[in-house]
Amino acid sequence: MKSDLDALMQARNMDAFIVFGNAENNPPMTYLTGGGHVSHAAVIKKRGEEPLYFFGDMERDEAAKSGLKLIPYSKYDLEALFKKANRDNLLAAALRLELMFRDAGVTSGRVGVYGFYDLGAIFGALSRLQTLLPEIEFVGEAREDSIFLHAMETKDEAEVNRIRRMGEITVEVVEKVKDFLTACEVRNDEVLLKDDGSPLTVGDVQAKIRLWVAERGAELPSGFIFAVGRDAGVPHSSGNPADLIRLGQTIVFDIYPAEAGGGYYYDFTRTWSLGYAAPEAQELYNQVKEIYDTLKDSFDLNAPFRNYQVMTCEYFESKGHKSQLNSKAPLDGYVHSLGHGVGLNIHERPFSGLLVGEDHRLKPGVVVTSEPGLYYPEKGMGFRIEDTYWVRPDGKMEILAEYPYDFVLPMKKWKPAHG
Amino acid sequence: MKSDLDALMQARNMDAFIVFGNAENNPPMTYLTGGGHVSHAAVIKKRGEEPLYFFGDMERDEAAKSGLKLIPYSKYDLEALFKKANRDNLLAAALRLELMFRDAGVTSGRVGVYGFYDLGAIFGALSRLQTLLPEIEFVGEAREDSIFLHAMETKDEAEVNRIRRMGEITVEVVEKVKDFLTACEVRNDEVLLKDDGSPLTVGDVQAKIRLWVAERGAELPSGFIFAVGRDAGVPHSSGNPADLIRLGQTIVFDIYPAEAGGGYYYDFTRTWSLGYAAPEAQELYNQVKEIYDTLKDSFDLNAPFRNYQVMTCEYFESKGHKSQLNSKAPLDGYVHSLGHGVGLNIHERPFSGLLVGEDHRLKPGVVVTSEPGLYYPEKGMGFRIEDTYWVRPDGKMEILAEYPYDFVLPMKKWKPAHG
Lengths: 419, 419
Description:
2 copies of one chain form a homodimer.
Chain A: H1 5-11, E1 16-21, H2 27-33, E2 41-46, E3 52-55, H3 60-64, E4 69-72, H4 78-84, H5 89-103, E5 109-114, E6 116-118, H6 119-132, E7 136-139, H7 147-153, H8 157-182, E8 185-186, E9 192-193, H9 202-215, E10 218-219, E11 224-228, E12 250-255, E13 258-259, E14 268-274, H10 279-298, H11 306-318, E15 340-341, E16 348-351, E17 367-370, E18 373-376, E19 381-384, E20 387-391, E21 397-399, E22 408-409
Parallel strand pairs in A: 1-5, 3-4, 5-7, 14-22
Antiparallel strand pairs in A: 1-2, 2-3, 8-9, 10-13, 11-12, 12-14, 15-16, 17-20, 18-19, 20-21
Helix pairs in contact in A: 4-5, 5-6, 8-9, 10-11
């Protein structure tokens, strides 16, 4: 939680940090400021002190909503800095940063650098700044080890409620997509048709999904996946808009909306087959569902998340599939890790990969996905089931948005000839 | 244009560059790869050679759409790298980067660093990498000087057509907002009402704007501004969702949609007053419109963009307002610069601020905004008119989406008592 930041800084012997960038779509900045339309901003926080928020004057109303201590950039005379820098933009930026650090009382010590922002501009400015403030040591951290991903790992109730709200929107949209698809007319060759009699495309469905998410005030800042057949067999193929939609094909629908402006995410996947399913597809789906259910019954409070990745790999191997446990970088079978934390980042701590440490655990307050899957692009099939779970303070794992697990969706206007 | 990158590298004595991050919402990466759902990727380009695209296997379909030379991360044995790094995540990342640079044939020289990505992770990894590849000098550039902002500054026809398409969507949405507002019932106290008789809020209108943009397949990755009264007087206040909408207030509607997934932007503003306008508001609007029109008639091919900022400041000063020419960081009057380039970044070269160099010019192929405005938050008013112009190869400035400049919008169901 945010209140852990000081302790995390202390544990790393970090005296201060600076976060660069916009307040939107920039998780550490959104976390500290609450978001809003503030661009090219910065926050400097000294350990044990209140953060200082630097922003452009035109965005003073938005910045004020943060409740942080504010310093508008107009405090620093940009024209004078440019002259002093002989019109060298990087040096002028470094000179302003020097004044900002001095105003924050930070002129020495280890200073963490964070934010999703322009790498070149910050790399260049910090190099110049280093000569102006030689007593500061700027420190980078691997993403999964950063104090922000650690603080964000456990959510308070307000954060969980925001994720839950995104979950409600998610399942509303998923239900609308299901209703829409199953109500379509079907051509003799089993292709779905639009009202005007022309074939429905993956792109048509994707447009509707975007619209139904927007109607609910949410966004899709990391896209989404609605992929059919072979594309469903490539985990992160987002789907080919020109493809037609046929009965009996696997459809992987993975949707991860976020609050507008880069807020909290939800993450959810269902796999469908319209009208009927090939026996092999049904069998593979059943395997995914079986391990999904086994996992759900097995999650233990405080257990290392990777244990469940091992369990999932072992299960799929027992069914004859490849996994990361028996193959290096498999391209079919079970090819990814089981899940990940969800919050202001679509992927955050705790992670479940075989290479992560035992400190990635199902602690109270974490919000994680469980998403086993099987992928056979050569067979034109893919399968994944995913829900987002909250590890409650009482130790129970709660799915934040319930939704049925039907694989074959009956079509309202089509019946199997032999059925 | 993209084909300028090699010459720009040469001019800066840059031997190679690396771009980090996702292919979406990351302009340099989108520029090189064409976008798509590819995350945590990298592109390394040696001067005079084809770029090499590094990506995760699950996103191989999306990466392949780039047409670039591809190397999946699975080529590098992550488990072995972790062991070699003693499970130090930053060192493991640096060891993989070392292999990637070696595969790209880059082991010495000046290497530019680009991309919107996790500053801390890259800062940390490059610090480690520096000891592994000591002959490389990593180079940062100020944003406005970067080779990417220089290359992107001039657009080819395909890029202009994509911006134009966003312009068409923009004015369609603006027209829908105008039709919606002017069709509202009006209460005795001049507050606009919804169909159910309750007051219309700024938040209601903002929700409709989001929806109408999404319906057209575009996104609002940098938000938008629909601000009324006092908020209209603060240039980047996005508007208070709880505010009611009254006749005779200034409404600043600044909308900058982009292609889904972080593509090309359009940028557009109109200022409206519903039903009637106070005489002072009409007078200030007329001034903004007058200088807007004067500018339009004055733009000269290849002229420094900042000349028009000077012209605008001088005009507003002659009318008794503050500007950046006669005041440091004014909070009312004409408080910002005239315009900016528009492309994959909502703000890019050329810039028009008083501090930018004469190399920011209205060259053929640039796409820029012209957006004079006046701001009086204490009086509860703000005004801005903005269009996006393309400097055509024949030297003519073309507005990419025409839209009327009416200030007072007559209400369909309300007439002024004395009118």
